[in-house]
Amino acid sequence: MAKHETPFLDQLESGPWPSFVSDLKQQAEVRAKNEAGVEFQIPVDCVEDLLGVVELSYKHGRTHWKHGGIVGVFGYGGGVIGRYCDQPKLFPGVEHFHTMRVAQPCGKYYTTDYLRSLTKLWDLRGSGITNMHGATGDIIFLGTTTPQLEEVFYELTHNLNQDLGGSGSNLRTPADCLGSSRCEYACYDSNALCHFLTNEYQDELHRPAFPYKFKFKFDACPNGCVASIARSDMSFIGTWKDDIKIDQDAVAKYIANDEAYPANAGAFRGSRDWGPFDINKEVINLCPTKCMWMEGDELKIDNSNCTRCMHCINTMPRALKIGDERGLSILVGAKAPILDGAQMGSLLVPFVEVNPDDDYAAITEIIESIWDWWMEEGKNRERLGELIMRQGFQKLLEVTGIEAQPQHVAYPRTNPYIFWKEDEVEGGWERDVVEYRKHHLR
Amino acid sequence: MSDLLNDTAAAEKLVVDFLTKKSKNKSKFYIKDFYKLFPDDKPRMIKKVINKMVEHEILEFWSSGSTTMYGLKGAGKQAASEGED
Question: Nearest CB to B62: which of A68, A145, A203?
Fold first, then answer.
């Protein structure tokens, strides 16, 4: 029988979706039975007490967790988040119930053996409850006591070849898509860049340096499988400069509804009938910039007007391929709605080559100039996106040394006044009055 | 790096004195609060010195999960209430 009565939580299980309550109950039972003979290092009934404290929170309509703390592992200022229950007498198993963030492998590639090693470690030294993965992308271990933190850290770093992730005012665990390891749309090797920057900025990841959190995310193409444009302060999205490559024979096969050329890359094939493929309806008319048309049997694209939305390539992947001159765009300032509402990233660098041979110098130079500005000018708990809003995108261009370009313009100017700076005007503010009066009488 | 920040003992003393002076009202500080103590230095250099002081257990981190603050080791109410012995 359950240690605590949980009528509110039981009700949550009646919904149509998988419930975290059922998962917690299952885990509580597994720990109670302990068929694997684990020598639990934290209270065996911690999951029962977790259910109890969550139930109490529903009953009272307020939380019983104390926020934050001084816990951590030696030398690191992130990766561990202190969590304490304010009802330790009722729920001793979760009196200390800290969260650990663990860096996920690039592209979230795991072997089953490795996953078992992680869960084995956490069953022994923690609650066994994980969140795979947290909103930032890392592995979240939920619930352990202070003495176990160093033990878990040692195991992770010495035996599992893994590191803690970021939390607090740190660089957060960088996250990436599968990139060129599996995907034909990849415009750069997102795994390599993510891995390089994770190593390069170890100090920023583990020792708080910033006014607030800072997130990098890497999408190898504009499909944006990790949604970096919405989820990261600095988003690296693969793109190409030249033309979309067209195989006209393959286009003809799509139009002819050839079996080997299914539309939408064969998505839901066998379970959903999309009807016969119609290139006008499904591709040309859906192009957001209307830059595609048919000339006889040939598909034409005005590449200068293409915004890399990827729709045509996704729909006819055997006929259309990304260009060969590949690199990435950098967008900055996305954030969730704590201040000023949610923001998407703004385009800062339309195209930069991705060059591992010079340690991605063009990219790290931009990162560091932005950090220097934000660390100096950012207010406490101000995200980069908020600083850009406060001081202006123009200021961002100044600190990064990037010239204003048409791609930076989101919409035409609404303010008719232009405030020039002295150094932007030929001759500055000084004028030769005598010379002026030669042409203009008083 | 300024001479002040370069002189580890003097820099550490300045930080400790600042925190001790403020200790009646506050026990946790943002990294930016330390920038004012070293007006001639870049934030990154100051951060390195402050983080070294954490490593030497003069200071300690306090983290809410989203934001990190710094304080003298053992200062403040929470330090006392968090002992698990």
Answer: A68
Residue A435 lies in a domain: no
Which stretches of chain A score pLDDT less than 70? Answer: 1
Separation CA A300–CA A292 (nearest Å) = 6
A52 belongs to a structural domain? yes
H-helix or E-strand spanning residue A80: strand A80-81
Q: How far is residue A240's CA from residue A229's CA, in Å, rounded to a whole number?
A: 17
Determine, for residues A375 and B51 on separate chains, whether the beta-carbon distance falls below 8 Å.
Answer: no
Encoded amino acid at A10, one letter: D
Structure tokens at A106: 């690039």
Provide the domain limits for residue A351: 175-241+327-408
Nearest chain A alpha carbon to B78: A69
* Chain A environment of B67 (Cβ under 8 Å): 168-169, 212-213, 380-381
**Residue-wise pLDDT tens digits, B45-76:** 899 999 999 999 999 999 988 899 999 998 87
Instruction: Give the Cα separation of A197 and B23 in Å (integer).
Output: 38
In this structure, the answer to whether residues A277 and A376 fall within a common structural domain is no
Task: Give the nearest chain B residue to A146 (CA atoms).
Answer: B84
How far apart, in whole angstroms, are the C-alpha atoms of residue A244 and residue A301?
8
Put simply, the chain A residues between 222 and 251 with a CB less than 8 A from any chain B CB are none
* Claim to verify: residue A12 and residue A128 sit in the same structural domain: yes
In a domain, A423, yes or no: no
A145/B84 Cα distance (integer angstroms): 9
Secondary structure (3-state) at A321: strand
Residue A380: which of B30, B55, B65 has the nearest Cβ?
B30
The amino acid that residue A39 corresponds to is E
At A323, give phi and psi (nearest 5°): -70, 175
Q: How many domains does chain A have?
A: 3
**Between the CA of residue B19 and those of A39, B9, B23, B59, what are the distances in Å?**
43, 15, 6, 10
Q: What is the pLDDT of residues A205-224, one digit of tens each?
A: 999 989 999 999 999 999 99
ipTM: 0.87
Q: What is the CATH number of the domain that holds A285?
A: 3.30.70.20
The whole-angstrom separation of Cα B32 and Cα A280 is: 57
Q: What domains, with CATH codes, occur in chain B?
A: 3-81 (1.10.10.10)
